Amino acid sequence: MKSEIRIIVLIVITFTVVTFLGVLVYNNLTQIVGNVTINNESEVKQLLLKEIFSDLSDAESSIKSYSISKNEIYLDPFYNAVSSIDNKMALLYESSVNDEKQIPIIDSLDILIEKKYFILNQFLEINPQDDIQKSLNEISKKLSQDAFSNRDTSIVSAVDTSINNTVVKHKRSIFDKIFGRNKPDTTQQVHINSSDTIHTTSKTEIKNEILKLKTEQVKSLKVSNEKELALILEDKILMDKLRNLFLRLELLEEIKVKEKNENAEKLAMKTNQYVALFCIIASILLLVTAYMLIVYSKRSREYRRGLKAAKIKAEELAQAKQSFLANMSHEIRTPMNAIVGFSDQLSQSELSENQKSQVQIIQKSSEHLLNLINNILDFSKLESGKLTLTNVSFNFHHAIKNIVTILSQQAEKRHNRLSFSIDENIPEFLEGDEVKLNQVLFNIIGNAIKFTNEGDIFLSAKLIENSKDKVLLELSVSDTGIGIKKEHLGRIFNEFEQSDENISKNYGGTGLGLSITKKIVDFQGGKLKVKSQEGNGTTVTVTISYKITENYSESKTKAAESIADKTIKILAADDEEYNRILLKTIFDNVGVELSLVEDGPDVFEKIKSEDFDVILLDLRMPKMNGFDVAKKLRSQNVEIPIIALSATVEEDEILKCYECGMNKFVSKPFKEEDLFKKINKVTRKSSLKSNSQSQQKDNIKDVVGQNEIDYSLEPLIAISNEDDNFVAEMIDVFIQSTQEGVQKIKIALGSGNMTEIANQAHKMASPCRHMEALTTVATLKRIEESSRNGSNKEELTKLVNTLEEKINKLTKALKAER
Amino acid sequence: METKKTIKIAIVEDDVFYNKALTRYVELEGESLSKHYNVDIKVSSFTSAAKSIENLEDDLDIMFLDYFFSSSENDEDLNGLDVLKEAKKHASNCFVIVLSELKDVVIAVELMRNGVYEYLNKDLDSRNRIGSIMHDIVKMKLKEK
Predict the structure, then answer these.
(1) Per the structure, how many domains does chain B have?
(2) For A97-112, what is the mean pLDDT?
(3) Residues of chain B numbered 77-136 and touching chain A (CB < 8 Å)
(4) What is the overall mean pLDDT for chain A?
(5) DSSP for A260-325?
(6) In this predicted model, which residue has the larger pLDDT, A563 or B110?
(7) What is residue A511's DSSP assignment?
(8) What is this model's ipTM?
(9) Alpha-carbon gap, residue A717 to A731, rounded angstroms
(10) Which residues in chain A are contacts of B101 at CB distance < 8 A?
(11) Domain range A388-555, its CATH number among 2.30.33.40, 3.40.190.10, 3.20.20.100, 3.30.565.10
């Protein structure tokens, strides 16, 4: 969050800075553009000045041309030039309105131009040729007056001059109009002079007059020349002044332009600096933003990776927890079985009242512990997803009846009535996991029984939906028991939690039952709901769907088939209801007749009235345990093969089974396949023996007792990958190493090296176990224990002899197998 | 992930029979694992603690170790714990699984303290566990990569 805000702030800052700098640069550029226009203006001004100057020279030259030629044509350009100068001066004034420095210069320029006009005017007035011409004309008139009539000529000449005078006057009036100034009338003087001369009339006088005229002419010429010279000088000075002014104006303009240019340059420089600054700041900000973004994304990626790793780790931890629970439970179960087994045996021995009650406490608590462990195992299986569904065809109606039959005994103990109803419309055969169904109902009804005293428990199975190949069933178990407090209803599915802490004290249980049940139901895609009112009982409803099948011949294994073919009768003794349901279910499915008893003594009663092909014996039963039952049966020469069923994995107990005359051992929880195989084995042997009739009771011990060496190549074949050579090789290795082992033990026995004996026995145990030569393993264990405990040599020798015997038998048998 | 990861497994067991059976079993499990995962399983087996230490590879992934050695001539004093310590020293990423007949809690605790991954009994039940342990380790090793 923090870095997100930082990035946003940075972006805002970047935006602001960029905008600010952009505005700044824009302003500067506008100013630069303004300067450029000013530059243009001053160029125009300079052009104006130049044009004024050239116009002036035009005016001058046209005036000069006029004064020489007296041709009025030359006056037009003069007028044009004058008006153009006037216009341009006006423009000049206009363009320099605000310029304090330039205005006085332009003013003096104006004055000088006026002066120029005046000088030009004066140029016009200087006309020496005209005067001379006039004098000459007078002289000639006088001459002709003398010859003809003086009056006429004088009149004519008077008229003539007056005309001349009017013309000149007229001309002057134009100039006056233009310049507005009076000028000395030089022509009139000349005229008067000349008219004066006219009245002097004599030849000498004329000669004198001419001479006089000549001198006068020279004089006048000289005067006019001088005047002209003076004018030219004046003009020159004026022009110089004008030029000077123009130059000054130009200079001023240039300075102005220069200033402006400098300003523009400065501005441009400034703008450049701004642009550079802008670029630098913008790029820095962009870089920082980019960096922040990269850091942010990197960090978020890291966080994500961290989270992922943490998730994986958590999952692994959960997995580890599961496997730890499973392993622990598994490991604990073994010693627990020993505790339970031995406390059973203890309780049967002669004990004082005090001891008996103590042993009972041990039994009860260990049973509770074992139950807890089994639940944990189930639970961890569920959690770790190792639970699998074994969908088989089963008789739903039978299944329900079986459960009720078995549990009704338990219900009766608490004076409860357990009844049930099955919807007739539910098809008889369904496909699904029957074992799981049993487990679920067993748990729910078990709970109902547990929390109900002298009440009713009712199981109903209703058909809710019936489609082509599927049915949706509603199984509900209602009781009239103590019920569950409303506030506890939400927690009843939590693991290890019971609705009330007092419950485990008063009713026992682990608090796992209902949560496991719910998980199993969920796993099968069903729903489990609990309705309860405190004091008014509880109703647990399971809705679950099953496939409809015609029969249940499918999904049967070879072993199951072979067992079904045999039409054998089996007796099973187990004190646990759940196991009885399981066995009933298993054998019902394959159509094998199964009789169930709850305890050891019942076995003897059962076999008196019926014939059985196999007896399945639970090792732990309250009144008489499996070992004792087997021993007693064998001592009564009952030849029925016995298969031990036990949760124990303790070797001593397994070996004890064989020693007690049992034929096979099946560990709980067992696989159907495994059980069927073992049943097949024992029934085949016994039927072979009984069919041959040649060997009677005496030989039975050979078949079932200690004398037959037990082993199995199955573990080897399983890993051989159908490689017979491997099996053969392994047999060789086994024979060799066990024979060597026996020899080493014998040598060590001779030298009294007890440690060596123990070590060798220890080493030999695992290959033997691998061959499932369990009686041999038992002997090896005894040897190891005895040698470590320092038992007497005699006993040890006896054991070693037994071992040698067994190994030899094994060797013989294995050699035959090869 | 493109390149096949090689999972190196060592079996240290002085009993020839059990050694062979275990090697065979581990190889079979390895074969099925390499079908499901992008791995090569390389199994080497040793019949003495000394030999296993001599040939210890730094990148060993899994070691199945017997605890109690007796039949060898030279390594009377070496037991599974010694091999475990060496393995942990040189191949720190190695998962060591001790297989033993011994049910001595003191030894088990000592092994656990020295970083043993699993402690299994040498019975047939353990065999299934071996397979699932290999499976778990291979999955972990693939994740590591």
Answers:
(1) 1
(2) 79
(3) 101-102, 122-125, 127
(4) 76
(5) HHHHHHHHHHHHHHHHHHHHHHHHHHHHHHHHHHHHHHHHHHHHHHHHHHHHHHHHHHHHHHHHHH
(6) B110
(7) S
(8) 0.80
(9) 11
(10) 762, 765-766
(11) 3.30.565.10
